[in-house]
Structures are given as C-alpha cells and as structure tokens.
Amino acid sequence: LLQRAPPDSDAAKWAAGTLATLTGGSEERKVAIVAAGAIPPLVELLKRAPPDSDAAKSATRALHNLASRSEEPKAAIVAAGAIPPLIELLQRAATDSDAAKWAAGALHNLADRSEERSAAIAAAGAIPPLIELLKRAATDSDAAKWAAGALNKLACRSEGLLLTRAATDSDVAE
Fold first, then answer.
1. CA–CA dist 99, 35 (Å, integer)
2. To pair with 98 at 20 to 30 A between CA atoms, which of 58, 106, 149, 173?
3. Which residues of the chain are modeled with pLDDT < 70?
C-alpha cells in the first residue's frame, strides 16, 4: 500500500501511521516489521511525500522507532538508502514540524554506537541541516533535543568530529 498510494493520500498517511505505532513497541515486533520488508516502502514514501505532510511525519517516526536499540533494523534502514532522504527532509521541512523532529531523531538513533553509520551520516551532509534545525527550533523543543543529540553522536565518532569541526564554530555556538 505504501508503494502504490499517492504520498499525500489518506491511505499513505494511515499505513505509515500504523507502522509508526507498531514500531514503538517490542524489539520482537520491530524485527518482524523489518523481516516483512516494511523499511524500503517507508523510505520510498519519505522520498515522495511533501516534507510537512502526515505521511512524512509517520514515515520518519517509524524509522526513528525502528532505529532505536537493535542493530538489525538500523542496518536495514541504511541499506534502504534512508540517510539522504532524512537529511533532505531536514532541509525542506518547517522547523517546528513533527517530520523534522523525527528525522533528527532517526539520524540520532542511526549514529548511535556506530562509527560507520556516523561517518555515512556526516558524509551525506547531515551536519549543516542539524545545526540549522538546532538554531531555529525552540530551545525546549523535541526537534532541538534530537538535533543536539544527533550532533553529539556524530561528534563522538572520529570521522564525525572532524566534519563537525568543519562546520563553523559560530554556527554551533549560536
């Protein structure tokens, strides 16, 4: 359904929303969702959906949930090519949108405990849009929390640290 429905349709919104809800639970359920092949359609929906749409919000929330804790879903998300569309969404979505919040959260979770994923996220250009989100978002917002967390995870990795330093110090200090 995610692959066939127009990205701004109720069908896409509700299908992605259902996956977002289901992925918020147990690790066994997440593994089953990965095994069922749900990640590539979520990534494709993310590529096609308007950045501030309910479908984009639900797709990014599902990817965020899947990327928490277990390594198997994280590997499947990266293999499905999710990093570039997550970054593009950060660049195009409104600062206060749920989609931007969940995209930053997904990048945070993907960067956690992996030098390779952190390097891939940094190399794909995530640092400038994460800094922009951090600068524009309300300081007490979830979007700011996830953006700061993602930048922290990237900075904790040697490759990410070098690329973080490449961003201007004034951008981060603001």
1. 25
2. 173
3. 158-174
